[in-house]
Fold each of these.
Amino acid sequence: MATQTVDGPKRGSFLSDQRTRAILFQGLAFFLVVVFFVYIGTNTARNLEALGISTGFDFLNAPAGYDVAMSLIPYTATDTHGRVFFVGLLNTLSVAATGIFAATILGVILGVLRLSKNWLVSKLVYCYVEVVRNIPLLLQILFWYAVLITLPHPKKSIIFLNDSIFLNKRGLYMPEPLTGDGFGLILIALLVALIIVPIMSRMAKKRQEATGQIFPVFLTSVGLIIGLPLLAAIVTGFPVTFEYPELKGFNFKGGMVLRPEFVALWFALTVYTAAFIAEIVRAGIQAVSHGQSEAAFSLGLKPSWTTRMIILPQALRVIVPPLTSQYLNLTKNSSLAIAIGYPDLVATFGGTSLNQTGQAIEVIMITMLVYLSISLLISMMMNYYNKRIALVER
Amino acid sequence: MSDMTQGNAPGQHYPPGQHPDMPPPPGTVGFVGWLRNNLFSSIPNSILTILAIYLLYAAIPPILGWAFFNADFEGASRTDCTAAGACWALIDVRGKQFLYGFYPDEELWRVYVAGFILLLAILPVLFDKIPFRKLLFANTILLPVTGFFLLSGTSGSPEAILPTVETPQWGGLLLTMVIGVTGIVASLPIGIALALGRRSNMPVVRTMCVTFIEFVRGVPLITILFMSSVMVPLFLPEGVNFDKLLRCLIGVSLFSAAYMAEVIRGGLQAIPKGQYEAAAAMGLSFWKMMYFIILPQALRIVIPGIVNTFIGLFKDTSLVLIIGLFDLLGIAKTVVTDANWIGLIHESYAFVAVIYWIFCFGMSRYSIWLEAKLHTGHKR
């Protein structure tokens, strides 16, 4: 780079130099983008002035003045828009988290069943996947909501499990666990178990690498996670009682209730995403070449070991990246809550608060940034996981 | 057969190696054998089979009964539906709205013509061995112009051949197709440009493209539609106002363009570096290299991914009902608010679900067919 050729061919116009052109082109592109944003900015400022809307984030401290149907934190209509934001965010996160959890389980089961040697089961799962994948999610959400709100009245509830769970048009009523004295000890026991398990598995791995002795990590982990809290529960005398929902007048009192909006949204998100996850799992397992399992069998590994130690680790490498994008999709799709009135972030903060304050730009920008950060956070976590399980190449 | 009976007969002797083949044991061939191998090969498998059969038994007869055997197909309002099942009279009476929304009756021929042109335009894209392919391609390229003038009209006076039909009158499947086709047509070139920008050596261009793509892919489509319906009017100078549908189209196109860009980038990355170098060695300029060498190969690899993006886009068009446009799903939601048809929401949703399903399933089958076709002789 240091030596410049002086006596090269005669230079043409300076425009024919690639680097000059690149700089010019980029300068032009940058300039155009800046002009675009300045143009929009001045227009917006003028329009907002004409409409008499003041910009800024002061509205977050103004009282919201409307009720939210479902809230995980205490909320009344006199609270601020800022609090509405957190109410909505928590609702979004709760439906996304439960949806991801359920969709993963259902999707993995379906994906494995799709590969089953059982012709009927495999074809059934195929039909499920093809039907669910090819119908818009919004339609499915609206459909399940329509199904739920046309269920019978509370007096004619559908009853599950011997008078403890009731399903009717007002929602899903379940017994609520009430914690008594000493419940903290159970939580501490669970925490201790969760800390011990990874340490134990690491030690077991080290020992196996050094001596070849195998320690039953899985069984011990299950035993610890169930056993320790159980022991604590026995010591404290089972400090959990259940409050059962009871029919009083026209509605149920007591217990926990999941509103039909939540159930419909959660169910539709789960069913829809599980279809995609099933296909991802199937493709991932099929991507592991047949020779791998044959080699494992010929080494004398049991079928369960072959699956756990040979097939799954290799399949996971194929499965994880598309699985991440499904998790992201589910989180973003939870914003369709607005169509059925589930009070998520978009429906409360991005909908009602926007209409009441008129602060369109601030509200939409905050909402978008929240989703953007959730997306980046999930993909960062999954990238970390992906890096850990990635093929170590020489 | 005679050999077999002889073979079983006692006292029959054959020279070594001359014994006729014995028939396979009963239960390993034929229908019973198939059942054993595929449905009842082990105890867990048999349990699964029985569960699946029970599931089918529990689900299929009620659904068929509701949809066909106990359904009413004719009538003028829901009170005419006396059977226990579905009331398809709704579709019979309101079918036009499902298909065209509130498009005026006397102008419906324009929708039919536009639909026919669209059909002709799709053919040369889908299949490469059809007659008059060049002519049809010309039609495809002109489609945005012809379609726009056909549907929205040329002049406001009612005497004109094509009087204006305002976009709020568009609806139903027509609107869904307009949004879907526009999104598909617009997102491909924008997506290619973004993908090239993302792989460019120029840092400023690359940063801008990456920011745009990652931003759009990180937010839900609804927020972008909200942006287009609430924020865009604030961005424009006073007196200038975009049509609501146009704003929505821009939002949908930019949204799917970001996804398209990522699909195409995958194709660009799969092209070996030698192809770029060879093109550069031949003295091709950047655009010539892309147009003649790289893009034809890259796009061909990612056609299945592109079709999948189209399927997603087509399903996502249903979101426009949230900002108040009456697409297929919006109409399905609206027609049952009519006092004559109130409460028939299941029929309405089922009908549009079938329409969406046919389109999306058709596209996915096409993508699989194409993948199989392209795969021959293209394995590395």
Amino acid sequence: MTDEKIKKVSIVVSRGSLEGVYPGLIMANGARMEGMEANLFFTFFGLYAVLDKYMDNIKIATVGNPAMRVPDAKGFPLPTLLGALPGMSAFATWMMNKTMDKLDIPPVREFIEMISAAGGKLYACKATVDMFDLTMDDFCPEVDKVLTVGEFYEMSAGAQIIFT
Amino acid sequence: MATKNIAGVDVNVNEEGYLTDHSQWTREIGEAIAKEEGIELTESHWKVMEFLQKEVKENGALPTIRRLTKSGVVDTKTLYQLFPDGPMKKASKIAGLEKPASCV
């Protein structure tokens, strides 16, 4: 007996840091690359990945991340107090963006455009939209719709739901 | 390693049907694999596959989708229309190349 292939995924992006946003984008794009249907649902601070004004400034969290090492992944652990220094997050983000670009992992905006062009669908969470006092005009054009949780579940019928 | 008769020629393939020796590939074999995959090849398909073959020849590795689309050969949307259900996998298979091993 062979296991049934995954045909559809619904990926929830709930965090607004660079390391919070990318896994969901990579998984959604990867799903499309495998021919699966992919829906992305942005909620809470994850919404910043699709907010037109802020999506180009997504940064790594250098505080509260005990696995964070400098200057590279096998370097020294970055003490929380140093991580809090001004410019630290921007610097770490710059370093990581450079590495990602080399691996052809695009910046957030380009990645969102790529997933949308690949047929992936992007949605914003209604509860957060209300809480943050947002309208459709605040989002990048790739966002299809604002969805309630109920609509999200309806849309995810038959899908694997992945929370990131 | 298995052999498979494609377009009247015995070629070496892996368990997923990807050619393991690109030197055995011909356009006729490409046409036959495309037919199996349910894809009718057009000039646009060939442009994509020729780019992939050129990249593998020059760099020893398949390009990422981003590299392919930035080359101007095809845009993302068209690529997914040309090769539905996994564009890089299908294009590589028909072009007689290895299965893509990149996450992006």
Amino acid sequence: MSMNPLLRRRYRLDETPVPFVLNGVAETGRRGDTVLTAILSVSGSLRQSEFTGEKRAGFCLIGACQDCYVMMADGRRVRACSTALLPGMAFITDVGAMAEIGHE
Amino acid sequence: MTRRLSVDVAIIGGGLVGSSAALAMRKAGLSVALIDKGYCGAQASGVNYGGVRRQGRPPEQLPLSQRAHRIWSQLGAMIGMEAEYVRSGHLKLARTEKDFAKLEAYAETVRNYGLGLELVAGSALSKRFPWLSAQAVGASLCPEDGHANPRLVAPAFARTAERAGATVLELTPVRAVAATGSGFAILAGDDIEIRCRQLVNSAGAWSDHFAAQFGEPAPLTRIYPSMVVTEPLPLRLPMSMGEQGGSFYGRQVARGNYVMGGGRGLPLADPDFSRPSVKAASSVMQRAIALFPHLADAQVIRFWSGTEAEMPDGNPVIGPSETTSGLFHAFGFCGAGFQTAPAVGEVLAELVTLGRTTTPIQAFSIGRFRKVAVETAASL
Amino acid sequence: MSEPLSPVVVGAGPAGIRAAERLVRAGLRPIVLDEGQRAGGQIYRRPLVEDGRSYRGRYGSEAGKAQRLHQAFEALLPQIDYRPETLVWNISHSERGNQLDILSAGVHRQVDFSHLILCTGATDRVLPFPGWTVPGAYTLGASQTALKAQGCTVGDRVVFMGSGPLLYLVAWQYMRAGARVQAVLDTAPLASKRHLLALAVHAPRIVALGVFYGLQLQLAGVKIRYGVRPEAVLGTSQVEGLRYRRRTPAGEVVESIACDALAYGFALRAETQLADLAGCRFHFDERDRVWLPERDVLGRTSRPDVYIAGDGSGIAGADAAEISGELAAMALLEDAGRASADVARLVAARNRILRQRDILEQAFPFPADWFETVPAETTLCRCEEITVAEVRRTIASGSITEINRLKALSRVGMGRCQGRMCSAGAAELLSGACGVTADKVGRLRAQAPVKPIPLNFGGGKPEAWS
């Protein structure tokens, strides 16, 4: 199911692009983005909750609620709201989407 | 206004020992008051690791431990909840040949107690436990040992005892207790007077205070566990783990958190409270990664500590007072009372009703410390 | 000559910066530890890179204050030991002295201190309702942070809900940034706004700004509603709308509004975990319905070596935070025998602000009746995913009257956020169930680590501070 991006950029529209990978697909963020901004500017969630599998997309954006942990392709997890986006970072926010890519 | 209560048995201390004793005594038809200065099961019974483990106990504890093992199998029916109890197996690793020899020797010593230990060594280890990535020479498995949620078990025993008719008095510190000749008189809480024929001292790390009031020395020291909990992670560790010759222990709960401990926490200025020590927690975290490399990217979300009581010889005190008729002690479980406690409750119920128990408890007599005290005095 | 001092300031927001500045003025070189990438705190938070906006564009009416604070900090930099992106996750006092456990770039270190000034700030106070975990539902503060620091809005068609002056400000800022503000849903009744008249006498600027934002929103056709209680977020994988009730003269009506994001909150909640770990005594604050570290007018806590300032010592806003940061540093210097200064003017200024906050709280009251209508299946604890029904059941079956006991038996507050997002709700729910006031159910004790730390945090021995 495709979801709308949750965040709308209002400034830094012409800032230097920063390439990253989301669920196996090449995407582009901007210099100065947090991981949360980069991902939610192109998609609708960051992770699934552990116990009910609900989609989550962060909540407080200041490092308090701990709801925006994102899995990186190398197994590490980062708190998306307080981690700066770096070129080449790869994230998995939807395990199902990754599995589909794997089957193709 | 004074509240007055008269019961057959008063129990000071609503940990798992006191709570299960209250339930067992209600089943035997006795009237019971269970008294706790705070909440039932909030101290050692609630803050321990949650291991329901027989493996590694000294032989003198095993009859009691086996009795408890049978009670644990009926936990759900008994207290109305499973409390996350699982017979996952307890696997004790040996890092060196010398440590493995100790595991072999232990298995030989306890061969007749029915623990069903399995020794696995060398290449068989990774075949038998493919999820185990740790470098180990060998291991000893007790297949029917397991773990449970310590925060839930004792409160559930207390609530079950209450529903069965026990008077449960929480937030009710005992202010004074004395023998009256025909029994005991207790002043507790703001204004509660309790009279009872028999008295149980199961006040955990606070038991020495009550034993002393009846002229019985109890060389109890306080110990503080140092626990580390990770965020919930995919299920991978199917057994509760320990180490021969090391202090690390760990398990993964059904919700995915790894619960791990080792070393000791530190008391705060008020020694009723404690904190995990960063040093102990750090070494637990280091050891966890060595044993489970897949945890290298995990986050720790919580430490915890608490207050437990330890006796100098590693065994608890269970049995009648040697100074005061009608008084029974049960305390000092040395951080390992969670598994045995429900059986201790039944033993206490037998002691107050029959004056004897079918489970051997001689090794746990409080008199063993009086003898030591007398000998020490004589040698001076 | 007295002993050398090694003061540490935790937090580089308005309070922390002014505290450090005062210490530097007395000839000291404090260590300043801050979780943020750049100093300024949350209110004067700076973007990671410049985005073309002026101070006016980013901070609006508070631009002057923001700029002065940032400039003050830049000037301090050569004279302080500043460590950004550094989490203080534990405090211990031992025979060896006082120590902070910190985490920076994934590595654990220990820092000794002679004196500590805690300026740990605040987070949004939120309450649960059906759908508050759905992607697109954010705290009010989050919506402002997205705009201020990242130049983004949460969603495009946005509903703002809650209680507090920030509600109207952020809605106005969103409108200015090009978002389509669908509604401002004030949970307080319109009648409560009469208190603003009293405030206008003491703080005409605050009231004028509030009226200005409200009028501009209304002129732009934004729906403003009072006495609102949310029923549910519409949508399950993303916010699609909000259904809510509101009181009208004709009785209660239920309405729905379409939106793709919701921002909500009920003022702020002090971050007090470190004060707790430092061993400070707490008291219950009736106005904010929360436990706060005890403090004197200058910011001394019950511990002789720990001082507290800013919103982390009780919500009073950024202006008061600047003053209280300076006062805490002055108290420290006086206690260490370094200086005694005339604090009367600053204390009076802070007291004026505190009186204004009391009136503001009446104009934007906390919705104390919240749990009377929250459905049982609502998630209360976001981390552990525990529902209101499960918590009510645990309270009843365990005869629970105390919040730490509730945590032990229900897991509420036991997850990654350690109760930051659910403790206000849990306390209200428990006190309601017990039929007592919120102070009677106790205070959720803080535990180290105050935020998650990596298991592999860099070796058995902490690296020495260099």
Amino acid sequence: MSTAQDVTDATFADMVLNSSDTIMVDFWAEWCGPCRAVSPILDAIAAEHADKIKIVKLNVDDNPQMAMKYQITSIPAMKVFRGGEVVKTVIGAKPKPAIEADLAEFLV
Amino acid sequence: MREIIIIGSGPAGYTAAIYAARANLRPLLIASSVEAGGELMKTTEVENYPGFADGIQGPDLMMAMQAQAERFGTEIVLDDVTKLELDGEVKRVTLGNGDVYEALAVIFATGSAYRKLGIDDEDRMSGHGVSWCATCDGFFFRQKTIAVVGGGDSAMEEATFLTRFAEKVYVIHRKDSLRASKTMQDRAFNDPKIEFLWNKEVVHIYGDELVTGIGVMDTVDGTESTIDLSGLFIAIGADPRTHLVHGQLDLNPDGTIAVAGRSSRTNITGVFAAGDVIDPTYRQAVTAAGSGTVAALDAEHYLAGLPKELLAKAESQSVTV
């Protein structure tokens, strides 16, 4: 079970867009094997860099509006938000070092 | 040091682990960090694996194989191998987290990786309409027009699966007949949402943020045309995943690892290979499982012939170095 908080269509504005933190949203679904594989890696990154980045999860089955708004066509898709804007997109399950490299600018 | 390390967690790797574990070789299986379970984790119904009369979901089959391997003492590590040193009696395996493991025998069962079309914008549009995984991404193409490229079983399976979501599914194949099995072909031919485009090759992917269309070229007369669509699923086969052993293990001209006759023995003593990584032809879950069995038995035989002092080392110091 992931340690990340869930975000929904209803809470997206509050938790992500209006947040002053750097927030990564993990778009996922129950039926997506690669999403399950990448989830513990994201948990680990969140734990190791708790002061730099927050990671929340959005279930695309239950929250189609945000999935559509952010034009998700492939999951897992991880989008980093700062000040309400998407500043980085990472797509696909990758090993931890690869995701850390993708997120390097936010982790320093 | 250990007796045996198995690299790969598809049917070949897990079956090798089941056999090696039951032979008391206490195998360590490196399963990969995000691709554990291999190719079958991305499939849905598996209808041709013997023993499952009503079919089984690919991920369920792999979880069952993993549980069976663990039941007999296989230790599983969810990480990726970054370096392999296979020369000499003791083989060294380095993982992404920096851990190094040593063993007297290695079974290499890394399977294969999806082939790309090799055209402009394929990588850029990956995840933006270009996909290699229908079960992962089909959901996002409800009521859309999409295409599947390829003529094999996996292309037919993807096309048929995608009709659950899409309004229309083109199957684009560069020849005028399919490689897919009769059952899969019939299923696709009889599906009203599927339209076949024969003798066509994808040459362009159009779209800025998201895929909006593709350009196809007729392989017979060379004419080009454009198709408006929102998704392109690529299922044109896979290549053996051998980058870790380049320069160490001999390869065949087709890219698979060369093994001696019907065995799993590579050119390096104590190194065995199994599954899709040695098989250019059949590439089924059940042939990979059989191949994993062969590798475990070959490795067991090899270990039995090693000097007792060496084996004693493996038995007494079965710890991470």
